[in-house]
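chain below, 321 aa
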Amino acid sequence: MTTAPTPVPTSAAADTSGGGGTPGTATPASPAAPTATRRRARGNRAWLGALPLIVFFTVGFGLPAIAILIGAFTTSSDAPGGGGTFTMSNLTASLQGGYLTALLGSVKLSALTALIGTVLGLPLAQAVATSRWRFVREAVQSGSGVLANFGGVPLAFMFVATLGNAGEVTTSLGLKKYGWSLYTFDGLAVVYLYFLIPLMILTITPALEGLRVQWREAAANNGATTLQYWRHVALPVLLPSLLGGYVLLFGASFAAYATAEAMVGSSIPLISMQIGDALSGNVLVGQGNLALALGLDMIVVACLVMAIYLPLQRRSAKWLS
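prediction:
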């Protein structure tokens, strides 16, 4: 009968050695990797870098948004019953009559100009992205950055001087006899395209540069034409970026105020014009907070735009990364 060997007990000091080193001697911890406590401390301090942005966003956007939200649902100080009383009349009035017409007019103008800007901006951006001359790409990118932020009274004056009723281009080409007028819905759309198309170029160019050369070569090797490549490969990949650019252009057009105010005034119903009139006191007695309700309508539309834009940008980045 065979007897099993008796196990030899080991000392606790030897166990702490981790199976290496001299028995009975504890191996010191390796300082190469930071401990979990240090990593956690660094993670807790990382948000401090974003603290100035958080403070700026809270003061510049959060507090005004809260004030608009409160004022939209309360009576103004000139109301017969006094101010600060909860009411739905401001929001109801902002969605009726001329105010609803102005809101729909802004949505219509923004949707149309964003669509035209997207359609025209894509081929222009493609021409820039595929240009063999670096200085052309840099010049167009720099110019687009300037023009995308060029608006307000200077832009309105430039178009009045060129395409107005007595503008140089209007008189030289005799555009008035063809029914052209800058101070109409179509004329305002042309003015908006001046800064929307450059904005689209800035937005879509990185996505175009992310298209793989191998995709075009593979399509060509399989006998696909240029049109088939764009239809079946490039456009499906670029679709999230195109939709994101369209939404971005929609938001820029929807929020524009100074250009339309300086050029057409109140002749074209826009929600931004109605807010300006309400803030200047051009409302009935007791409706002083109507401008806040109109501002809340714009915030809701802007939030919907951002809710669409952010997922599209993430999807585009996933494809083109």
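Residues 1-27 have pLDDT under 50 and may be disordered. The CA atoms of residues 73 and 87 lie 5 Å apart.
thats it, cya
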